[in-house]
Write a structure and sequence with these properties.
- The chain has helices at about 15-30, 45-55, 70-75, 115-120, 140-150; strands spanning about 10, 35, 60-65, 80-85, 90, 100-105, 125.
- The chain has about 160 residues and is an alpha/beta fold.
- It has one domain: Alpha/beta knot (3-Layer(aba) Sandwich).
- It has a seven-stranded parallel beta sheet.
- Helix 1 runs parallel beside helix 2 (about 45-55) and helix 1 runs parallel beside helix 5.
């Protein structure tokens, strides 16, 4: 059982309903808040989104925001980690603390380059071997980084 102050997963302009549905299920299972930012590439009523989230939607702490700036203004003391394949720092080198915001960009373009350029010390990547794969699936990436964050704060230690 995970019983810690929740982390926050932020999806900026997600495009693929099953990815968001899978991440919603991940958030329901870990007590993580899910923030959807900007223009979505689907409707929240989308059947594929609902199907991927199964019957876990009532357990998802879901928040909608017009922009990342609006979200950040609502949490001025929040700490923000930005995921990108171009980061120098691996997600395992981050020093996560409870309530951090872990931000993922849209599937086809990632996060805005200016945002990443302005925050290099908070940019994280998931290392891949070779060049056969450019990046991992969004929901897989969210699970990898979130579970590392949970591990770091001791939330996965069973009694």
């Amino acid at each position: 059982m995970i019983s810690t102050p929740p982390f926050n997963i932020v999806l900026v302009e997600p495009e693929i309903p099953p990815n968001t549905g899978n991440i919603a299920r991940l958030c329901a299972g870990t007590g993580t808040h899910l923030h959807l930012v900007g223009k979505l590439g689907f409707s929240l009523d989308d059947r594929y989104l609902k199907r991927a989230g199964l019957d876990y939607w009532p357990h998802v702490s879901l928040h909608r925001w017009d922009s990342l700036d609006q979200l950040q203004q609502a949490y001025p003391d929040g700490r923000w980690w930005y995921t990108t394949k171009t980061a120098k720092k691996s997600y395992t080198q981050a020093d996560f603390t409870a309530k951090d915001f872990i931000v993922f960009g849209k599937e086809t373009k990632g996060l805005p380059k200016e945002l990443l350029k302005d925050n290099p010390e908070f940019c994280l990547r998931i290392p891949l071997s070779g060049e056969a794969v450019r990046s991992l699936n969004l929901s897989t990436s969210a699970g990898i980084v979130l579970y590392e964050a949970l591990r770091q704060i001791g939330a996965l230690d069973s009694e």
